[in-house]
Amino acid sequence: MPNITLxxxxxxxxxxxxxxxxxxxxxxxxxxxxxQKVKSLAEELDYKPNSFAQSLRNRESKIIGLIAPQIVHHFxxxxxxxxxxAAEEQGYLVITLQSGESYETEKKQLQLLLDKNVDGxxxxxxxxxxxxxxxxxxxxKGVPVVLYDKISKLLDCSKVIIDDRKAAYDATKFLIDTxxxxxxxxxxxxxxxxxxxxxxxxxxxxxxxxxxxxxxxVFETKDLTYDDGYGIAEGIFKSxxxxxGIFAFTDLLATGAMVRLTExxxxxxxxxxxxxxSNWFLTKITSPPLSTVDxxxxxxxxxxxxxxxxxxQEKKKDVNSPKEIIKIPTKVIPRNSTRPML
Amino acid sequence: MPNITLxxxxxxxxxxxxxxxxxxxxxxxxxxxxxQKVKSLAEELDYKPNSFAQSLRNRESKIIGLIAPQIVHHFxxxxxxxxxxAAEEQGYLVITLQSGESYETEKKQLQLLLDKNVDGxxxxxxxxxxxxxxxxxxxxKGVPVVLYDKISKLLDCSKVIIDDRKAAYDATKFLIDTxxxxxxxxxxxxxxxxxxxxxxxxxxxxxxxxxxxxxxxVFETKDLTYDDGYGIAEGIFKSxxxxxGIFAFTDLLATGAMVRLTExxxxxxxxxxxxxxSNWFLTKITSPPLSTVDxxxxxxxxxxxxxxxxxxQEKKKDVNSPKEIIKIPTKVIPRNSTRPML
DNA sequence: GTATTTACCGAAAACGTTTTCGGTGATTTA
DNA sequence: TAAATCACCGAAAACGTTTTCGGTAAATAC
Lengths: 342, 342
Known about the structure:
The structure is a homodimer.
Chain A: H1 6-13, H2 17-24, H3 32-45, H4 51-58, E1 63-68, H5 74-89, E2 93-98, H6 103-115, E3 120-123, H7 133-140, E4 145-148, E5 158-162, H8 164-177, E6 183-187, H9 193-208, E7 218-220, H10 226-238, E8 245-248, H11 251-263, E9 273-275, E10 292-294, H12 297-316, E11 325-328, E12 331-333
Parallel strand pairs in A: 1-2, 1-3, 3-4, 4-5, 5-11, 6-7, 6-8, 8-9
Antiparallel strand pairs in A: 10-12
Helix pairs in contact in A: 1-2, 2-3, 5-12, 8-9, 10-11
Chain A binds a DNA duplex through helix 2 and helix 4.
């Protein structure tokens, strides 16, 4: 079945393709009568403009690209959902790709999106990415790019991030406020900025509460897995430091640690309080339910798209407003792995 | 910066656009010398063919559409990942959309994808979808469509599904084999086929093991939420039926029920054994860890794409092989919410 | 030495849309 | 009545690619 085109409509009506096109777009130099005829015939034949032709002519695809390190991940899935919803509202569709935390695939996928002529790109850097030229290059080329969550300060573009430092500060302070004296920190892998920021937030909360920072209370992880948290708990249990609180880099680490410490006979939260990070679904159903920091992924996705959308519009009009960095506020969610506030 | 096109390459080299195009595609009627010149200049200038022009000319977008009821969902996220990976391998990109279990948006999004001229569509029906014309129409139009997970028998197209009936049979049999005498079933909402199939699997496992089916051992849910499972547990606890095993429609329901039953003083698995369905991540960290049925989402996504890919290829060649229905095998994952096998 | 094949290239149409730039005839204005 | 305005429409170029169909020169065949 041959597709129905403007040409066909024009032929049937005995007018030119140009007139048909303009009629559908309500150009002023087309009579109301012709407009009506074209519109109703288009309706009747269920005419759909060919998007390739439109894109070719208008130089825009109405598609954006989205790269996430992982898709099967509560936080990122929420972001993706937010992006898709916000995009759809503006008539944009989203091509999603995942780097799998690999620099090479991240680079390759960026190119795939560019090859498809997406109107803009939303990207969260992989943990392994230490060279940013692949992103810098496309920014330089004028492609609208917005970074979200895993960002780099070296990249000159708009960004949406969690205020990790403040969030970590709040979490740590919450432990202190609920009676913890010696708070440990299970930190993430060294590289990403989030690790550093949460660590700094932890440190400054200690400082502000007159607790001396003690390096041996900081435990490092590489994998961010449940098993990792589970393993690290051994060290915390055996430590001589009288640890009575843990601020973990993620809920998963916290959960792993909590399970192991419980197995080892410690009571949570009385012997040791634990707070995670992200408010993933699982935190509601651990025993005890895990206190955590809510990291609003959906909102982040929406904001990221809106930033990108603005840039896309501005590019069309050839204006250039300054880059923006949005910090999404977080909130401590107290549950039963920490003691109640006094 | 103006994009670099075939025309530009041709001009620089003093040849025609046609020759340039053919050189890049290794046409036999172009001399090796010209091919080399064109290729190296293209390389040097970083020439990227304009995808709109290609799509317009070739009538294919190398993009497929994917509609899922939910994105923030372990099972679907895995499927999406599988689809994206498999697609990328064949040079396809994926536009993902979520219906949010709404028939109206499902319908609308199908249209959005069609308007973008995707080469094919992968769709999992929303729970609320009871009219299938919107899908049937595009199948009739010749658009390659493959249904996955939430399917309808009324739709004539290829499908990829979990063998729900067998999976439920296995899960129920597993409870019986580990000593349960009176196995309850928390079933899903009435409509979707999965609910029915799992229920039938449950029933026939009972029958094959000479246990009489008892309607009052079947509990219905609407929401599939943790809270739903939690609430239903009340009824199970208060029941006079001496229930000693539960096969729940999903892990979440199972977890909710398990938590509530534990609160009510029952010991899992000794007083009551529980098995869930899906092997979501959370099952590893409940206490006790939840026995479940593994539902391989990733594999399902891969298979679904491959089916779709085949149809797309066949459509190009104008051949028409019969529709295929793939059933993905599942596996019982024994953990500690059920008793050990004797 | 003519006829035929071979090797290589290009003109042009096509995909379907959008928009510019005139160009009609009809109506107003001076 | 001539000149200016108006309302309406269409031809054609453009977006960048692909492919068909010749066409020309050189190489081979007879």
